[in-house]
């Protein structure tokens, strides 16, 4: 245990207290969490909710950029019609809502309900 006199002398000599280093690291971790991790967690949660609520008739865009309509869902695989009569099987997790579609609007409205 250091006496307060030694701490004052150490600070007077230009040495930074080890506690200040820990506080600095804690603040940096907190800033990193707010800027990087928290938005990613929120986006991942939103995507999980979308994938969990997928149903036939939803308009989606694949990770590769194909637009289509969900025809059926079988477990982790969704069958998506990308053109008339052209159906492809796609991993559900690779589907995203089309901007402005009903699925995105419903997830936004559920978010509004949570915020209220």
UniProtKB/TrEMBL annotation:
Transmembrane segments: 20-37
Cross-referenced Pfam families: YajC (PF02699)
Chief location: membrane
InterPro entries xrefs: Preprotein_translocase_YajC
Keywords: Cell membrane, Membrane, Protein transport, Translocation, Transmembrane, Transmembrane helix, Transport
Gene Ontology terms: biological process: protein transport
Family: Belongs to the YajC family.
UniProt-recorded name of the protein: Preprotein translocase subunit YajC
Lineage: Bacteria, Deltaproteobacteria, Bradymonadales, Lujinxingiaceae, Lujinxingia
Gene designation per UniProt: yajC
């Amino acid at each position: 245990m250091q006496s307060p006199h030694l701490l004052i002398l150490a600070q007077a000599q230009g040495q930074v207290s080890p506690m200040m280093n820990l506080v600095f690291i804690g603040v940096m971790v907190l800033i990193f969490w707010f800027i990087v991790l928290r938005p990613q967690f929120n986006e991942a949660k939103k995507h999980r909710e979308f994938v969990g609520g997928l149903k036939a008739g939803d308009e989606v865009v694949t990770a590769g950029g194909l637009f289509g309509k969900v025809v059926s869902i079988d477990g982790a695989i969704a069958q998506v019609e990308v053109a008339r009569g052209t159906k492809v099987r796609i991993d559900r997790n690779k589907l995203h809502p089309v901007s402005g579609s009903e699925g995105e609007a419903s997830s936004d409205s559920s978010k509004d309900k949570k915020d209220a």
